[in-house]
């Protein structure tokens, strides 16, 4: 460990949130997120509007993060940013800004994989017990659904992944069919608490090994609702809470079927969740309940589940400790692999 404190300014701009955080070693001094409301009216993220909004948000967000952390730019040790995966136009704003800032301050640059950030967010110092290596991470977001074996902060092996949609898309697309706003995940979560999860049955799609598939699920929800609303045009209105509870119940069943298989196959019983969908209260509860089967489970604090820059800061901090710096020729990589 370095004797001096390390101050990292981190930027996350991979999708529709412009975020900046300042970390002192593994401690978060500030964590600012500007959500882009503009996409709600379109029912999904519009890439061109996202990159424009990042352009206007980035300087105010960075200034706010520095102000809240009470840190002067001259104290910074390095700049971390999300290299990918994500939307090209969005990533470019964060990447270009981070490079320019590092160059002007003459400090090193740390390029971070977005999903490493979601996983390593567990190591942010928040007074909670941390997982020890190796552990399994279920990373669930609007773009990803993966089971990852985490051997160290730089050795992360994907054991299974989705072959089509991510689980966040299954939440959002089902919600869109139900007439819920974007993103629908949090709304389904809220409504599901009031409904009966066994009222309606949806199919569990088949996928090989530890992989996932969600595109058939969304289609099944669509056909089910088309069939029912033909019989009763108020079907959705009259059953919204039960439909949401049943959708959420099935998605949890799909996620945990493969996660349980991964625990058995690897013999690793420490299991963490990360990514925007891990904010889901049903998923959190179900994971906790697995402790009765001998699992040790880790759930990140709420503010570090959906996209944020603190997670990019902690992942950058681990790279900093290993002198794993990026060159100024680094580029945004929308489809980067783990
Ligand atoms: O990680 P994230 O903020 O962005 C991506 O990297 O994709 O994840 C966003 C996803 C969206 O699909 C959103 O609906 C979902 O996370 N989400 C939730 C909840 N909160 C956010 N899904 C289910 N329940 C929630 N409480
Ligand atoms: Zn994310």
From TrEMBL:
One CC-aspect GO term: cytoplasm
Gene Ontology biological process terms from the UniProt entry: tRNA threonylcarbamoyladenosine modification
Top-level taxon in the UniProt lineage: Bacteria
EC category name: transferase
One of the Pfam families matching this protein, by short name: TsaD
Co-factor: note: Binds 1 Fe(2+) ion per subunit.
Domain Gcp-like: 28-313
Reaction equation(s) it catalyzes: L-threonylcarbamoyladenylate + adenosine(37) in tRNA = N(6)-L-threonylcarbamoyladenosine(37) in tRNA + AMP + H(+)
Binding, Fe cation: 114, 118, 307
GO MF annotations in UniProt: iron ion binding; tRNA N(6)-L-threonylcarbamoyladenine synthase activity
Subcellular location(s) per record: Cytoplasm
Cofactors named for this entry: Fe(2+)
InterPro entries recorded: ATPase_NBD, Gcp-like_dom, KAE1/TsaD, Peptidase_M22_CS, TsaD
E.C. number(s) listed in UniProt: 2.3.1.234
Biological function: Required for the formation of a threonylcarbamoyl group on adenosine at position 37 (t(6)A37) in tRNAs that read codons beginning with adenine. Is involved in the transfer of the threonylcarbamoyl moiety of threonylcarbamoyl-AMP (TC-AMP) to the N6 group of A37, together with TsaE and TsaB. TsaD likely plays a direct catalytic role in this reaction.
Listed CDD domains: ASKHA_NBD_TsaD_bac (cd24133)
PROSITE patterns found in the cross-reference section: GLYCOPROTEASE
Keywords from the UniProt entry: Acyltransferase, Cytoplasm, Iron, Metal-binding, Transferase, tRNA processing
Sites where the protein binds substrate: 139-143, 172, 185, 189, 280
Family: Belongs to the KAE1 / TsaD family.
Name of the protein in its database record: tRNA N6-adenosine threonylcarbamoyltransferase
